[in-house]
Amino acid sequence: MQVSAHLLIRRDGNVIQFVPFARRAWHAGESCFRGRPCCNDFSIGIELEGTDDTPYTDAQYGHLSAVVTAIIEAYPHLSPREIAGHCDVAPGRKSDPGPAFDWLRLYDGLGPAADVIGNS
Q1: What was the pLDDT predicted at 120?
Q2: Fewer CB atoms inside 10 Å of the end CB: C or N, the chain?
Q3: Which residues pair with 9 in a beta bridge?
Q4: Whole-prediction pTM value?
């Protein structure tokens, strides 16, 4: 079984990179985003340590916001509108980040990068 992600954000906020962003990670499996199949081929996989029904930590939200902001700055063709959970790209098979994940808190943490969510 091939399973990996580009990044893991642990409960204490520690960020571990397993796969370089320019290489494919095996995090989404059979998946589709906006009609485009095989999300592993074109996405950056960020895993959050935890469970679908356990609230994520302040440290995880802080580091996730910083990581996503850095990715958007490094890849200017990306925007917060392109952020999706495994539950969105592989529904019925994957459930994370789950109902405990606060999407608005993530978007608020992105600051100016998130402005395009309301203006596009």
Answers
A1: 40
A2: N
A3: 15, 48
A4: 0.90
The full set of domain ranges for the chain reads: 7-119
Predicted confidence at residue 118, as pLDDT, reads: 44
Nearest alpha carbon to residue 47 among 2, 105, 5: 5
pLDDT for residue 3: 75
Closest CA to 18 of 2, 42, 34, 30: 2
- Homologous superfamily (CATH) of 7-119 is Peptidoglycan recognition protein-like (3.40.80.10)
Active-site residue flag, 47: yes
Alpha-carbon gap, residue 120 to 77, rounded angstroms: 14
- The one catalytic residue in 30, 47, 49, 82 is 47
